[in-house]
Design a protein that fits this description.
Elements (H helix, E strand, L loop, with lengths): L7 H28 L11 H17 L1 H12 L1 H19 L4 H29 L9 H30 L1 H21 L20 H21 L8 H22 L3 H24 L5 H9 L6 H9 L3 E5 L3 H5 L6 E3 L5 E3 L12 H8 L5 E5 L7 H22 L6 H25 L10 H28 L5 H23 L8 H32 L4
Antiparallel strand pairs: 1-4, 2-3
Helix pairs in contact: 1-2, 1-5, 1-6, 1-7, 2-5, 2-18, 3-4, 3-5, 3-18, 4-5, 4-7, 6-7, 6-15, 8-9, 9-18, 10-16, 10-17, 10-18, 10-19, 15-17, 16-17, 16-19, 17-18
Length: 550
């Protein structure tokens, strides 16, 4: 029996799995590395500065595909773009393994540029594999399979990262990401003969916007306004990098508004629908991408990660626990678990949640530990919590697909825009889990169960599955043919802005006396996005119907 999917999909699946292995390994440990003390190999950045750097980094990794995709379409071809992007990313990952601040920033730049070439090119190859009548009907399921590869890589990477960090240090963990990227390129090379038919550069069409025009009217103004934003005295948006990024986005946003205003009557409705989806999706990513900042901080400082007994022995044997002194300089430096750090004058500085002391251990355990100054506690590595989301995706995707298939048979399956709005609402509910966790932990007085993070990730994963996989699909379906590449770039731009906003929001963590209010604000943003989605839902469904798609 002939397969429903082309052979090349298998090679793209494993190529992307290993590429995402490296990308998400970095995401999982990036903030932890930046805030770790220099004495243990970290950069000793403040939490706020680390959040800002993280937000800028992930924002730029989704901004560069706008130009990288154009160059792949018109100049390089997808094979060359994948090799170039993969090689630059691998060098960047390995460069992070050298404990040097200059190497740190150069390596981030290599990853950002490399991702710009790699990400849009491999996604385009997947779609091109299904361009023939033989496979055309199975394109959506092909993308679902491809999406699973992404999340398998994201799931296993944090386990490997924890092992390498505990056994060999931060540098080894970063270098492992680079090895994963090179492995992905080797697999891609092995499958090239099955992918040749997909490496078809986009033919020039009437009405296409030239690459020179894009560079002159979008990227050059973006660079110039970004420089202006960086150099403005003071901080309009709390940091120089945020000012530069927001200013750089202004010419790009103006470009898309003008594209909509100048479009023909036939093109204006689908373009308007896509821009509306980009706007509400941006708010989703602003909250979702805090998994690498605020939720990592919650796992690191506010979650009871201590393991004992058989669990401790098992995890220790495979180097997945972090050994900490029960009585450390950190405990002496901080008045209490979540109280205050003293400055040089002995005045308290309000920095919550930074020591490893457990106020909620039993009195017997505390007494036993205090009798042994050399005693250590075993803590589950913080980065392991980054595997919860991809783990949920792997578990829930078949269930959600089956659920919607059941509704389809009954004639009650929601439209794609309806699924997106549903995903926004469900994601808002995940924030309420964290509000409850804050109150359970008395706003940091007691470390709470890891199950609160497991539950939070579980709920927001359902929202993600309703929203994220639909994004590229709806762009490819609604975009006028000559604007497809531009609208794909707009989709990535909305994610980029959302990612940067996630860093801005996370950097406000210490501005909230009651941490529940931090998560309530996030919930409010998603509910606002839900209301916006409901407001435009009728029009979105009408445009989909005009196009003859669901």
């Amino acid at each position: 029996m002939k397969s429903k999917h082309p052979k090349g999909l298998l090679f793209l699946f494993f190529t992307e799995m290993w590429e995402r292995f490296g990308y998400y390994l970095i995401i999982g440990i990036f903030v932890l590395y930046m805030i770790d003390p220099a004495s243990t190999g970290g950069l000793a950045f403040s939490d706020k500065y680390a959040d800002d750097i993280f937000g800028t980094y992930i924002a730029l990794t989704y901004l560069t595909p706008f130009l990288g995709g154009f160059l792949a379409d018109r100049v390089l071809g997808y094979f060359k773009a994948i090799y170039l992007g993969g090689f630059l990313m691998a060098l960047g990952y390995i460069g992070l393994g050298f404990h040097d601040i200059t190497s740190f920033y150069i390596s981030m730049g290599l990853i950002i540029v490399g991702n710009g070439f790699f990400k849009p090119s491999i996604s385009t190859l997947v779609g091109n594999l299904y361009s023939t009548e033989e496979y055309k009907a199975y394109k959506d399921s092909g993308y679902n399979i491809f999406y699973m590869g992404i999340n398998i890589g994201a799931f296993i990477c944090n386990i490997i990262a924890a092992f390498m960090r505990n056994q060999y240090g931060w540098g080894a963990a970063f270098i492992t990401a680079g090895i994963g990227m090179f492995l992905g390129l080797i697999i891609f090379t092995m499958g090239r003969k099955h992918l040749e038919q997909a490496n078809v550069m986009k033919p020039k069409q009437e009405g296409d916007i030239s690459l020179n025009r894009i560079l002159a009217s979008v990227f050059l103004p973006a660079i110039l306004t970004g420089i202006i934003g960086w150099m403005i005295p003071g901080n309009i948006f709390k940091s120089d990098s945020t000012d530069a990024f927001i200013f750089a986005c202004i010419p790009i946003i103006i470009f898309y508004v003008r594209l909509y205003l100048k479009a023909s009557h036939e093109d204006k409705r689908p373009l308007g629908a896509l821009l509306a989806i980009f706007a509400v999706g941006m708010l989703f990513w602003a909250v979702f991408k805090q998994n690498g900042t605020a939720l990592t901080r919650w796992a690191n400082y506010y979650t009871d990660r201590q393991v004992t007994g058989t669990t401790e022995k098992t995890l220790s044997s495979i180097y997945l626990v972090d050994k900490k002194d029960f009585q450390t300089k950190e405990v002496q430096k901080y008045d209490n678990q979540f109280k205050a750090e003293k400055d040089e004058n002995g005045e308290p500085i309000k920095v919550q949640g930074k020591d490893v002391y457990f106020t909620n251990v039993s009195s017997e355990q505390k007494e036993a530990l205090e009798k042994k100054p050399e005693a250590k506690v075993s803590l589950i590595n913080t980065e392991l919590f980054q595997s919860i989301n991809p783990g949920w995706i792997i578990l829930l995707t078949p269930l959600l697909v089956a659920f919607f298939a059941f509704l389809r048979k009954k004639g009650k399956e929601p439209s794609t825009p309806s699924k997106i709005v549903l995903g926004l609402f469900i994601s808002a509910l995940s924030c309420l889990f964290m509000v409850i966790a804050v109150y359970i932990g008395s706003n940091g007085a007691v470390k709470v169960s890891p199950l609160w993070l497991v539950g939070t990730y579980g709920v927001i994963t359902i929202g993600e599955l309703c929203l994220s996989p639909m994004g590229l699909s709806i762009v490819s379906k609604l975009s006028p043919p000559r604007f497809t590449a531009l609208m794909m770039g707009g989709f990535f731009l909305s994610i980029s802005i959302g990612n940067k906003l996630s860093g801005v929001l996370a950097s406000m963590w210490y501005d909230y006396e009651n941490k529940a209010n931090f998560f309530i604000v996030n919930c409010g943003l998603l509910l606002f996005a839900t209301v916006l989605g409901l407001f435009i839902l009728k029009r979105l469904n009408a445009v989909m119907k005009e196009k003859g798609i669901n």
